[in-house]
UniProtKB/TrEMBL annotation:
<dbReference type="GO" id="GO:0008984">
    <property type="term" value="F:protein-glutamate methylesterase activity"/>
</dbReference>
<dbReference type="InterPro" id="IPR008248">
    <property type="entry name" value="CheB-like"/>
</dbReference>
<dbReference type="GO" id="GO:0000156">
    <property type="term" value="F:phosphorelay response regulator activity"/>
</dbReference>
<feature type="modified residue" description="4-aspartylphosphate">
    <location>
        <position position="56"/>
    </location>
</feature>
<keyword id="KW-0963">Cytoplasm</keyword>
<comment type="function">
    <text>Involved in chemotaxis. Part of a chemotaxis signal transduction system that modulates chemotaxis in response to various stimuli. Catalyzes the demethylation of specific methylglutamate residues introduced into the chemoreceptors (methyl-accepting chemotaxis proteins or MCP) by CheR. Also mediates the irreversible deamidation of specific glutamine residues to glutamic acid.</text>
</comment>
<dbReference type="Pfam" id="PF01339">
    <property type="entry name" value="CheB_methylest"/>
</dbReference>
<dbReference type="GO" id="GO:0005737">
    <property type="term" value="C:cytoplasm"/>
</dbReference>
<dbReference type="InterPro" id="IPR000673">
    <property type="entry name" value="Sig_transdc_resp-reg_Me-estase"/>
</dbReference>
<protein>
    <recommendedName>
        <fullName>Protein-glutamate methylesterase/protein-glutamine glutaminase</fullName>
        <ecNumber>3.1.1.61</ecNumber>
        <ecNumber>3.5.1.44</ecNumber>
    </recommendedName>
</protein>
<comment type="similarity">
    <text>Belongs to the CheB family.</text>
</comment>
<dbReference type="InterPro" id="IPR001789">
    <property type="entry name" value="Sig_transdc_resp-reg_receiver"/>
</dbReference>
<feature type="domain" description="CheB-type methylesterase">
    <location>
        <begin position="156"/>
        <end position="341"/>
    </location>
</feature>
<feature type="domain" description="Response regulatory">
    <location>
        <begin position="5"/>
        <end position="122"/>
    </location>
</feature>
<dbReference type="GO" id="GO:0050568">
    <property type="term" value="F:protein-glutamine glutaminase activity"/>
</dbReference>
<dbReference type="InterPro" id="IPR035909">
    <property type="entry name" value="CheB_C"/>
</dbReference>
<dbReference type="GO" id="GO:0006935">
    <property type="term" value="P:chemotaxis"/>
</dbReference>
């Protein structure tokens, strides 16, 4: 396995030192260097361009988002955001993810060394996922109609239909492209996006401001209804429950499943049990195999199942594993998924 070369950009000397120590202790990773701001970083990286950049947001002379946009326009490179755990930081980090960052690692204001030592596996997974990624610039917004075609009206006459989406690395951009293309009367949607707890609310609020559909971070007891999207809170599992003709979600703690909490497998398995043939499952860009087994269970329960194709994925991991296990009925490009959510039969 080739060594992953990393460059760190952070205005804190302590952060640069600790990150360098932690990453250099990981097999298969080498820190090429570090810099206190993007202007110094660009000069240093010319000697040897890194495979992955670990980037802070708030820095002197040039902030991380400005640098990220410049980078994606001139020389797209996988970027992992390393941001402080604050509400302001969460909102800003969501802007960075939309601009093309691959993943987020959260850092506390105090106790940094102990935190990063404990989070070594999480940090290494983020670096590996970024190294495998194909960075993409932010997609153009869709001008989809606000109502669905008459031919698919039966999909929206009842809450009996539900769509479950699962994604990870590269998923913030992918979800933005899909959800902004949906009409207001699309089926109710439940989503797991691998993301730290402090960021899912900001992510949902940002999407809510961009989309025709309503988007919110899920809370226990929320109903799944047409035109609404519920995103699993970071750090908690989300499952689907059925009561008569209504669907609701349950949000709960629990052990990691497929190395994640929230887990796509947990959501998909609950959808298989609660909705069966009335469900559509979609697995999208992401590293690893979370969701592959759950999608197979949805397929075996009679649900329609789709996977994002390799060409449009930032990381073709989760969809690839789901296809290999036999749970994917058809692969689609990212730009086709919104249409398939509204009228899946035309794509299968």
């Amino acid at each position: 396995m080739a060594t992953i070369n990393v460059f760190i950009v952070d205005d804190s000397a302590v952060v640069r030192q600790v990150l360098t120590e932690v990453l250099n202790a990981c097999a298969g990773v080498r820190v090429l260097g570090s810099a206190s701001d993007p202007i110094f970083a660009e000069k240093k990286m010319q000697a040897q361009w890194p495979d992955v950049i670990v980037l802070d947001i708030e820095m002197p002379r040039m902030d991380g988002i400005t640098f990220l946009r410049k980078l994606m326009a001139e020389r797209p490179t996988p970027v992992v955001i390393c941001s402080t755990l604050t509400a302001h930081g969460a909102t800003t980090s969501m802007q960075a993810m939309s601009a093309g960052a691959v993943d987020i690692i959260t850092k506390p204001k105090t106790g940094l060394k102990g935190f990063l030592q404990e989070s070594r596996t999480l940090l290494l997974d983020a670096i590996k996922g970024a190294a495998a990624a194909r960075p993409k610039t932010a997609p153009k917004r869709s001008t989809a109609p606000t109502t669905a075609p008459a031919a698919v009206a039966p999909m929206h006459e009842t809450t009996d239909r539900v769509v479950a989406l699962g994604t990870s690395t590269g998923g913030t951009q992918a979800l933005e492209q899909v959800l902004t293309a949906l009409p207001m009367d699309c089926p109710g949607i439940v989503v797991v996006q691998h993301m730290p707890a402090q960021f899912t609310r900001a992510f949902a609020e940002r999407l809510d401001g961009l989309c025709k559909v309503r988007v919110k971070e899920a809370e226990a007891g929320d109903r799944v209804v047409p035109g609404h999207v519920l995103i699993a809170p970071g750090g908690q599992h989300m499952t689907l429950l059925r009561s008569g003709a209504q669907y609701r979600v349950e949000v709960k703690d629990g052990p990691l499943v497929s190395r994640h909490r929230p887990s796509v497998d947990v959501l998909f398995r609950s959808v298989a049990q609660a909705a069966g043939k009335n469900a559509l499952g979609v697995i999208m860009t992401g590293m690893g195999d979370d969701g592959a087994r759950g999608l197979l269970e949805m397929y075996q329960a009679g649900a329609l199942t789709l996977g994002q194709d390799e060409a449009s994925c930032v990381v073709y991991g989760m969809p690839k594993e789901a296809l290999r296990m036999g749970g994917v009925m058809r692969q689609l490009a990212l730009e086709q998924i919104a249409s398939a959510i509204c009228h899946p039969q035309s794509w299968l």
